[in-house]
Design a protein that fits this description.
The complex is a heterodimer of chains A (about 260) and B (about 425). Chain A has about 260 residues and is α/β, with parallel strands linked by helices. Chain A has a single domain, classed as 3-Layer(aba) Sandwich (Rossmann fold). Chain A is about 40% helix and about 25% strand. Chain A has a six-stranded mixed beta sheet with strand order 6-7-8-3-9-10, with helices on both faces. A four-stranded antiparallel beta sheet of chain A has the order 2-1-4-5, with helices on one face. In chain A, a hairpin with a 2-residue loop joins strand 9 and strand 10. In chain A, helix 3 crosses helix 4, helix 3 runs parallel beside helix 5 and helix 6 crosses helix 8. The mean pLDDT of chain A is about 85. Chain B is an alpha+beta fold. In chain B, strands 3, 4, 5, 6, 7, 8, 9 and 10 form an eight-stranded mixed beta sheet that branches. In chain B, strands 2-11-1-12 form a four-stranded antiparallel beta sheet. The mean pLDDT of chain B is about 85. Chain B has 15 helices and twelve strands. Chain B is elongated. Classes of the chains: A alpha/beta (about 260), B alpha+beta (about 425). The structure holds adenosine-5'-triphosphate (ATP) and magnesium ion. The site of adenosine-5'-triphosphate (ATP) has 13 residues of chain A, from strand 2 and helix 1.
Chain lengths: ~260, ~425
Amino acid sequence: MEKVIEAKNLKKVYGKKSAVFTALKGVDLDIYEGESVAIVGKSGSGKSTLMHLLALLDTPTSGTIKIDGEESTKLSKKELNKLRNSRFGFVFQQFFMNPKDTVLNNVVLPLKIAGISRKKRKQLAMDALKIVDLESKAKNKATDLSGGQKQRVCIARAIVNNPKIIFADEPTGNLDSATGDKITDLLFDLNKKQGVTLIVVTHDEDLAKLCQRIVRISDGKIIADNSVRKDTAKKASERREKEAARVKKANEKEAK
Amino acid sequence: MKISDIIASANSNLFRNKTRTFLTILAVFIGSFTIILNSAINTGVNSYIDKQLEAAGGEGYLEIMTNEAVDIMSSMMSSSSEVKEYREASGNDQKSTYITDEQIEKARQIPGLESIDLIYSANPEYIKAKDSDKKFAVTNLNLMPRGNVNLDTTAGRKPDANTDKLEVALTEAYVNALGFSSDEDAIGKIVTFAVPNTVECYMVSKHSDCLKMVDAEVVGVQAPSIMAMGGMRANLALNQKIYDLATDGMPEEAKRHAFQATAQVDPEKIDEIKEKLKEVGLAAMTIDDEVGMIKVFFDAILVVFSIFGGIALLAASIGIINTLFMSVQERTREIGLMKAMGMSNGKIFFSFSCEAILLGFWGSVVGVVFSMIIGTIGDKIAHESFLKDFPTFELVKFDPINMLVIVLIIMFIAFLAGTLPARRAAKKDPIDALRYE
Ligand SMILES: Nc1ncnc2c1ncn2[C@@H]1O[C@H](COP(=O)(O)OP(=O)(O)OP(=O)(O)O)[C@@H](O)[C@H]1O
Ligand SMILES: [Mg+2]
């Protein structure tokens, strides 16, 4: 399998002089195409920092990141923007939407930045909203949605540009467990059906268990990574199906 | 991101915070309104003054008197109480104020001088429509000279200096008095002037017996003027004819009494020609020499008002900076998000600049619309009151190119004001922006 991201000896130091803080202390991490990876760890352990580096939103103090085998520092600003715009999708814990704008306009944003025509981007955005089952809310103001719906809009926005990699930072952190499960389903569906590489930052062990691979991070270092297990993929998918069945049951129960 | 999308979203972002945007636009509006209305008044007043000046004489048009006449006039005008010692004049002192044939001949030799005409004063006693007996006193009949001189007319044209036909331009008051139904109606009609002959009038017992009649065609009706250029205008032929009728029978020498002349010269060489005329004993003045001061006065007032407008715009620029800084602050997270999604710094900068430019655009466009409304109403009120007698005086005149230039300049000023906050937005680190609470 292809390595999509290859990180070597990543270090990240925040602050200056007296207030120096080393958030990452040398991290090596390879991400393969089509994987689902959970990055777990305590609060403040450096999960978000690592994810931001992998997504090229931030630059490491030292160390290298290769995307599709190409060194990130060799990319021009323009190429970097293009890459983020067309290859990556982001889901954040706090949603990050323009609350006063409509759902459709929020979803359309990456396409607008890409410079896609009005008609086409509307079509693509409606398709994305269909996947998250929110087409009927397209014209609503984003602020009028429930928390779960908002996060689904964010997922629609993350997938609207048909990305290769989705970065999700605590995608269920702000949601109750039932709504969280729905979001989880959506993300793993994309991973399974469309082969999107999924990188999920979480401190929710249940969510982490659904991933093929769990990277544990503590105090800026990776302390465990189960990527070497051969049967990971199979086991994970079994686990996932079980989980899905459980969720379905729970939902049905609730409905009754 | 496409330019059209950036502009569209900048506009919708602006109107997300309506109150703030409205107040900023209001500030820009006050500045632009002042400047635009001011410029319109400037255009209106200046174009009227120009029109009036053209009626008095345009480029290269000179009014000429003898040097002696000018000296006498200036000593008459001066308030000095100084008593000068008497000095005997070289020749006939009275005569030296008249322009001689010799001087005219010499003047004609000056290169660049296109024409020179003596002005004889023509004083008819009355005017009447040819087929009517109603007579009206003539107080003021002026010469329409040859050269670069226009006439502000409400109908018809200025009397032609180069024809043998006898032509006259009436004033509106005479149009009514002579019984013509309108200014247009008067054009082409024949009027009769009665001219008293100086010699005969000493001899006849009944005054009307010494009056000579001359017919002239009405070719134009002139607009009322705030300057002292009023009165009917005769062309050179009519003026000469009237003078001839009045002086018929006088000694040849006495007939040639003109103490004014007009000349048309090459405007490029005007100073040189003035100098040469002086050597011949003639003093020449352009209209700018005489009435250019009026323009300077008006311009000074308008400059003061423009400064007020400029100060208002400066304050508005600070308003724009403030508004955009607030907007950048509020939308920190949105900026971070857009950057995370691959929007370039340049486009971020442009989208905020766009907001600034739009503030300038809306403010100045509203300024244009309002100043046009206020200006038109003001003009109407003025024409119903103190400008009643001057229909061709447009108090405010909206020159589209002028308006456009002002709008563009204000948009540019707004852009400059917007660069500060736009730069701050463009420089934001996406991570900091996303972490921002
Ligand atoms: N800009 C910054 N300046 C200084 N320190 C920072 C900065 N950003 C992060 N840190 C520090 O780096 C460490 C790692 O932060 P990070 O956000 O990666 O943690 P995390 O694992 O995502 O935690 P959480 O689960 O709470 O989100 C923290 O101790 C944090 O205080
Ligand atoms: Mg975090």
